[in-house]
Amino acid sequence: MNLPSWLETTSRNHPDKLALTFGEERWTFAELYRHVNAAAETLTSALPDPPGRIGILSANRPGFVLAVLAAVRLGIPVVPLNPRLSPAELAFQIADADITLLLADETHDAAAVAQSSRNLAVIPISSIENRPEKTLPSPCAQGEGLGVRVNLTAEAAVFYTSGTSGRPKGAILTYGNLWFSAISSVLHLGHRSHDVWLLTMPLFHVGGLAILFRSIIGATPVILHDRFDPQRALHAIDAGAALVSLVPAMLDRMLALRNDRPWPPHLRCILLGGSAAPPQLLETCLRLGIPVAPTYGLTEATSQVATLLPEQVQAHLGSSGRPLPLTDIRIVTEHGEAPPGAIGEIEIRGPTNFRGYLGDSEARDPDAWFATGDIGYLDDDGYLVVVDRRHDLIISGGENVYPAEIERVLRSHPLVADAGVVGIPHETWGARPIAVVVWRGDPTHADPELRRHCATELSSFKIPDRFVLATELPRTPSGKLLRRVLSEHIAPARRGT
Amino acid sequence: MNLPSWLETTSRNHPDKLALTFGEERWTFAELYRHVNAAAETLTSALPDPPGRIGILSANRPGFVLAVLAAVRLGIPVVPLNPRLSPAELAFQIADADITLLLADETHDAAAVAQSSRNLAVIPISSIENRPEKTLPSPCAQGEGLGVRVNLTAEAAVFYTSGTSGRPKGAILTYGNLWFSAISSVLHLGHRSHDVWLLTMPLFHVGGLAILFRSIIGATPVILHDRFDPQRALHAIDAGAALVSLVPAMLDRMLALRNDRPWPPHLRCILLGGSAAPPQLLETCLRLGIPVAPTYGLTEATSQVATLLPEQVQAHLGSSGRPLPLTDIRIVTEHGEAPPGAIGEIEIRGPTNFRGYLGDSEARDPDAWFATGDIGYLDDDGYLVVVDRRHDLIISGGENVYPAEIERVLRSHPLVADAGVVGIPHETWGARPIAVVVWRGDPTHADPELRRHCATELSSFKIPDRFVLATELPRTPSGKLLRRVLSEHIAPARRGT
Known about the structure:
The first copy, chain A, is an alpha/beta fold. The first copy, chain A, contains 13 helices and 28 strands. The N and C termini of chain A lie far apart (54 Å).
């Protein structure tokens, strides 16, 4: 099933409308269209044959937007990579996803990355950022571009997300996943031609990229920030942003800066996702009249799954709202589908469900339910309450941290007999990983040695805050780690840790 | 490709929101959902096996809405029939579309209709209008209804539209056609949770039915009128309707009643379709600040194809606007695709293009261009200007009238040697058919006899206003009727005719 190209129809219908701002730079949709076409030419000449996938290793910047949209034009999947990946993690994902061309920003040593992987071309992302000549055809010229269509069932992007296996897995999203996600959000939140989105979430997360696609599909301008800065985010909202996605830690910092001064009335919705919204944060928003919308989402469902609308927060505090219009949710326990109020595993179905993981022997049935691993219930009014994210998942500052991945690294150290990782609540980051280790060496060496060992394999945000030594770990007779017991045995962090 | 059921997700997410009003009657989405389920049970017990298609022969009324939505739930295609069809036309469409169950309103003699067709069950449409008991399950009860999904590629409805062949043809629309049409309209016009649609167009036209589906998919209430009445339409707009579809003759009558009194500010958009909007009508709207949106659409594209937004009317008077986001338009002449400004045949492509006509040997390629037969051009800014509807098409009061169909009937009269039909402009109806006939009998008998003959075969609105006698008709050497020459030879109607 094919649709007309999103960027082309939007630039055809709204050529002079603002599409993107980044700092002092501005692009209309017609300018963005021309620039993306020029970027597509650059990528085409840099791509090997066969092309594999295009990796992007960068903070938010115009080149990121151009690379993604140029890849859509070429029909080549992109793999947005977390810039904080360790060299070992990066090499694994580049090989696993068959990335043949990598666009990297200046914080990465292109030569070093290229050496780490065979058959990889690395080009600076700045190389596609020079604006093309104005003489290039405009999107209104009839026929120009009409041949390019979007195949909804084709692969659009791969996002890495770790499973219980301890190895990150590449979740494959199709163009249809991205399109239906945008439409479902439009139906749920409404759609106004004067809406402006503030995009301060990283584009290498599905929640950031989904905002970009929603804006291209709906012809709504995006204010892009290179990274989250609470003062600049407040400034962008005061200057006209109507919609923004945040994680609770971000909103906390903005509230602290703003004090009780009022927020502008044009602000329609703050999508609050990533981890559970603390009740006191929501109560502050209610008191100040800030339109906050707690959201439950996950990579495998192209971000948004359920969203509590601002006008529903007062009556449904603690809920993540009703499912989006194109998503079905059910709760499943060992006894099958659960009635309202009963807690079980959250399962979801709909056209935003991903196609499967890289390396799966076959694609997922698009009509199959996806078991999220998250725990929750549907109340009598059909509102979802998420009781617990996957029991092994630690969400730290909006990043997913998977204990199994850290445990695998810890156990690879010759002096570690066993290791378990759990998350504990953290004032700033929501949660942080703590490791419990059965250590065979000198206890005084354990902390620096384990820290050094983790740093060679893991992104810095995955390195446990503390390494607690133990003589054995609580396990079931079949050997399964009892994380809940483990976390109960960890002493709370001392103040200031 | 399947989506969750539209009515079920909307009633799950908006159970207490107003869905439909009709006179003093009101339904919330949850009530509508229960009522549709009850109607589906009634239809199931009345349907033969195999079920064929469900015909609806009725003016706008709640039973029409319930029948359509119950058929969606059952996955059985509906055929909305024009209540003004002659018995012969009706019998043809019932047989051609394999209608096995017909829901008819009181203006039709059910027994007579049933006798006219073999294997046809006829039930009064009122039989599904009694509200079900309140004890039926609500849509929030988890699991209930989650099994019902909408297959976007399956057939949803057949609308009859005549071709040059002189025989009406059944255009097949899929659920996907209806869904993408609703979404494309939402993206083009915006979407607000407080929008209310006034539905005063007939539901047996695709333009009326499309409004119903748009409202179910977008969770926006519909005010349903049994027929167009300018005073009641004005009243509904004053009472809160934000969006309405009209043909120019309707808007004319509303403007005449309203005089220069202001229209309410909550009125967002009057979609003006059916036939070309007269410039003086648009100028009146501009002067009074009425948000009118001239629209080009056709049955084979599930209604809307291009819409000039209210804020664009001033600068683009005479245009039908830019294509909807999911539609591509190109202009084709004998030299191929035409450049901007060049006049040619309008061709369209996109997911709202119909699947084909009943009786076609194979389904249309969903990615193929559809040649509309209408004539127009795209200006330098990509706005469509419709120069002429299909040269043989007469649009009279919003109804399509096909000369070839009337000519076939005229030529079947034993005293008619030849016949040609053209449209001439009409103050109230936009255009009316006029017949030019080569008559072998007594000229004084021609008018009453031809009028009687047409009435046995044709809907009353298709009967020519006048029968002009001639000794021969202008034809090309190959025998093709020269309609343009024909219309130039018809004397203008006398005042009052």
